[in-house]
Design goal:
This protein has 159 residues and is of the alpha+beta class. Helix content is 53%, strand content 25%. The chain has 2 domains: 31 residues; 121 residues, Nuclear Transport Factor 2, Chain: A (Roll). The protein has 6 helices and 4 strands, in the order αααααββββα. Strand 2 and strand 3 form a beta hairpin. The longest helix is centred in the first third of the chain and has 28 residues.
Amino acid sequence: MKYRMPVALICGAIALAIFGSRYSSQAQLTQTSSYQEMSDNFFYILQHNNASDAIDYLFGTNPALKKRPDQADQLKAQFASMGAMMGPYISHTMLLETKVAGRFVYQHNFVAYERRPISIRIEYYRPGATWECYDLQFDGNLADDIQKMADDKLTLDVK
């Protein structure tokens, strides 16, 4: 009977050490989550027809962007104005990813909607240990841009 209390305290300390370290590593993982996880979360939210929340999610990763709600509101309005023309979300594909010095990443995504494709460009920056969204852009003129690029490659054989 006199040994139950110390044994219980030792077991409790061991359990705390095990679960505490799991929590600590989980918190550290969340804090240093990769930019790709951020992109995946953004597109998951976007897929569920909630562009406003997707924008808030990415802007929420950067303290400087949180202080500029007008920029987020402008993107939300831009996306909302395109929304009626696009139809439901279908899929997204990364067209290009460029990394610079392990601290900056540029992603250019092709996003398919039922009635038209759009382009979404995301920039990430890691000033310290944590990645944050640096910039986000939508472009509803992707089809026009693709057509122009194709036409620029057109060669005419003039005789």
